[in-house]
């Protein structure tokens, strides 16, 4: 490793519906630009073909902005890191192809990054307001596509202890939100309305799943039947009870998640607990996890809000950690829609 040298890495993220670019210098984020794609809201979910097209439109200005905000020249970059997978193929291809071309044009190394490792390793971004977890720690990785409890042994050795057997928790939020007429993505809206409601208003049965695995599809169906029944009796049921419905849904989801995390702590004896992924932006999940510091003696690691939902800062930090290990990719690397958290 070259000491006292500034290493600049450009991170590119395009796995789903956010186009993002970030410049990191020796682990510190200099810029982290995210362009959200509003287009999907009216379809009630991400439309892959439209996402891919929007990435094509956004990628050049987003990268230019990230380099500009970092106050560097593209010639200062030491490597290009990009999300290889998992994600939507049409979306991944845009970032992958762009990263390859830029690395060839600038004659600098290319670094493939696993998006899920990005969510977890966002905890290692150098930031005065963010404490880095020690190894080994447990990470509850919760997003629109994943729900996992992962044992993080070191930066690139991870073991999945449990995961969802069907829907991801982000899907549970978004699909429940859709049932009560909220636009996509509904997760942040359920969070917002839940703050004003009574979490004990309505009771939804929690799934019975063995070990450290999760299931969320039954909850979604239970919510659907409950709402259909109530609306039949009172057509204004949703508007009259929106806050209480959201608070009750959120209460059930949070209990399902932390029941399993508590079990994982007992099983492993590890009580350094982190959360990662888009759903870790949720205010109740953050609050409850923090409260376990005093009630259960855990040490908890809650990422800065901007590193929770998809962003290129988390890709750039993995790029930097791989750069330090000379872990580069060659130009024949391909995007892949499926990639497990422990695959590189
Ligand atoms: O990590 P992410 O940005 O994309 C994926 O890799 O999937 O996660 C997106 C998911 C969506 O399901 C969104 O509704 C959910 O994260 N989300 C939230 C909140 N903010 C984002 N869910 C609950 N509460 C929030 N505050
Ligand atoms: Zn993600």
What does this molecule look like?
By secondary structure, the chain is α/β, with parallel strands linked by helices. The chain folds into 2 domains: 8-124 and 308-324, ATPase, nucleotide binding domain (Nucleotidyltransferase, domain 5), CATH 3.30.420.40; 137-302, Nucleotidyltransferase, domain 5. Helices cover 41% and strands 19% of the residues. The chain contains 9 helices and 10 strands. Strand 9, helix 8 (283-296) and strand 10 (299-301) form a beta-alpha-beta unit. The longest helix has 32 residues, at 237-268. The two termini are 22 Å apart. Bound molecules: 5'-O-[(R)-(carboxyoxy)(hydroxy)phosphoryl]adenosine (KG4) and zinc ion (ZN). 5'-O-[(R)-(carboxyoxy)(hydroxy)phosphoryl]adenosine is lined by residues 16, 143-145, 170, 173-174, 185, 187-188, 191, 277-279, 281-282, 309-310.
């Amino acid at each position: 490793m070259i000491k006292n040298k500034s290493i600049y890495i450009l991170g590119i993220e395009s796995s789903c519906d956010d186009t993002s670019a970030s410049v990191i210098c020796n682990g510190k984020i200099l810029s982290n630009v995210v362009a959200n794609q509003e287009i999907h809201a009216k379809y009630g979910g991400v439309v892959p073909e439209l996402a891919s097209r929007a990435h094509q439109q956004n990628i050049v200005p987003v990268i230019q902005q990230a380099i500009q905000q970092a106050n560097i020249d593209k010639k200062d970059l030491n490597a290009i890191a990009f999300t290889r997978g998992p994600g939507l193929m049409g979306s991944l291809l845009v970032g992958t192809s762009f990263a390859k071309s830029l690395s060839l044009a600038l004659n600098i190394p290319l670094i493939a990054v696993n998006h899920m490792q990005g969510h977890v390793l966002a905890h290692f971004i150098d930031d005065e307001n963010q404490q880095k977890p020690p190894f080994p720690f447990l990470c509850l990785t919760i997003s629109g596509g994943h729900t996992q409890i992962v044992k993080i042994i070191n930066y690139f050795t991870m073991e999945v202890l449990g995961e969802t057997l069907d829907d991801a928790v982000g899907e549970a939020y978004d699909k429940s939100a859709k049932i009560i007429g909220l636009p996509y993505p509904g997760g942040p809206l359920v969070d917002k309305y839940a703050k004003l409601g009574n979490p004990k208003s309505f009771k939804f049965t929690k799934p019975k799943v063995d070990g450290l695995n999760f299931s969320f599809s039954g909850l979604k169906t239970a919510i659907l039947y409950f709402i259909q029944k109530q609306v039949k009796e009172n057509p204004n049921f949703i508007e009259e009870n929106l806050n209480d419905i959201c608070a009750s849904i959120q209460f059930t989801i949070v209990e399902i998640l932390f029941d399993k995390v508590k079990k994982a702590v007992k099983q492993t004896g590890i009580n350094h607990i982190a959360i990662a992924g888009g759903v870790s932006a949720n205010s109740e999940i953050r609050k409850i996890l923090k409260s376990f510091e005093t009630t259960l003696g855990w040490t908890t690691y809650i990422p800065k809000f901007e590193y929770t939902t998809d962003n290129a800062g988390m890709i750039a930090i993995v790029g930097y950690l791989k750069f330090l290990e000379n872990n580069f990719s060659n130009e024949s690397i391909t995007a892949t829609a499926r990639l497990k958290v422990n695959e590189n």
